[in-house]
Amino acid sequence: MTKYQVSAKEKRILPWLAAVGFFMQALDGTILNTALPAIAADFHESPLQMQAAIISYMLTVAMLIPASGWLADRFGTRNVFLFSIFLFTTGSFFCAESTSLSQMVVARIIQGVGGALLVPVGRLTILRVFPKEEFLSAMSMVVIPGLIGPLIGPLLGGLLVEHATWQWIFLINLPIGLIGCVLAFFFMPNIREKTTSFDWKGYLFFSCGVVLLSLAIQRLGEPDASLTAFLLLAIPGALGLYTYFWHSQRYPHALFSRALFRITSFRIGILGNLIARLGSGSIPFLTPLFLQVALGFNPTHAGLTMVPIALGAMSTKLLANWVVRRLGFRPVLMLNTLLLGALIAGFSSVSNETPYALLLLYLALLGVFNSMQFTAMNTLTLSELEREEASSGNSLLSVVMQLSMSLGVAVSATLFALFYGSGAALKGLQANGCQQAEILSAFHDTYITVGCLSMLATLIFRRLPQKNHSLSSAEEEPVIRR
Questions:
Q1: pTM
Q2: Of 31, 358, 379, 465, whose CA is between 20 and 30 Å from 133?
Q3: Which CATH class is domain 259-482?
Q4: 292: which DSSP letter?
Q5: 344 and 365 Cβ atoms separated by less than 8 Å
């Protein structure tokens, strides 16, 4: 790949510019969850109904990831990056100005369009500017803010809700976005590449299918849920995905290469990600609600309590690859999936009588095993891809990661609605809590079910061969999310 020449000053600033986008997206992914009960109270909604604000963003990001590389090649990296920061910042402003859940959902979709392009385009620009020997050091500067975001997000969200207003969790993006726009305008190269034809027809079929199926699952958690409404969304969604698979068999440049699913490690990795992340995806949404609604924590206390998850995850980053290399994918993923599912289900024993220090230790362990799971699954999925398959494979993995996390939110909210009772009862659930015993029991049952669902991924990882896999292809060559 030809490396583009830029000035020394641009080369110094470019990683920090990409880091601004990474930080904005990573912070946004965690800061909102702690504020959901407060926002729900202002909107006169159940906190569980606020899942729509989370899912709308995740689905938008998932659907635009496959087009991010093509858009950057077609319109230029600087133009697309500027546009993405502008949209993300504008969406943040509209989120802060929202007075109803429906308004916030629209604003989150706008925010998601920008968020979907921020990280892939920034990372792609670094790939095209830095030579291979400098790439990893440049990317390490980008990744650090992405790790800080989940660490400070829950606590910062709680502090802003308790000592200011929930609107500030969105308004803080405005100065960051302004700085990013100025830096991008002056220091980001506008790199264009010759574009190939993009599979817009397949993209439409795939996107519509995934979105409709996700909305069908989300619909089950609504107070006025009905089988008819579910089927009206699920059937067209299933038809959309079926049409995409039919189309991909006949179109030579399909959105995702057909050859990918002939690779055992990729096929198992994608399916395992989809199932295992149902539990992991529910934790950032469900646990802040559990702490505030069921246990009565204030927003700051709940945000502080979530910090050990991020600390545990960060502490495991380097250890995870060593463990997988030492033991192999199959035993690590089978054992870790069971342990992670058991830890999620173990929240059923957490109550107001649980010692706080024990709760913090428990959450740190959850972060450790969660990070181990993500690292092992992602490395497995990409480990045997050839260079010509890397872009398509990594794009699909990124879509599945976002999709499975949004499904985790939808499934956990739906399960809580089923366990707590009727739609009318759900409407009465507010941040200050009522009928605490019933609420606590519903959360406990939800955690048990979600944990058991996550454990089902063990049956998928069991199909991996007994022999140890090599990590070389995943570690030696950086694969860039397009």
A1: 0.84
A2: 379
A3: mainly alpha
A4: I
A5: no
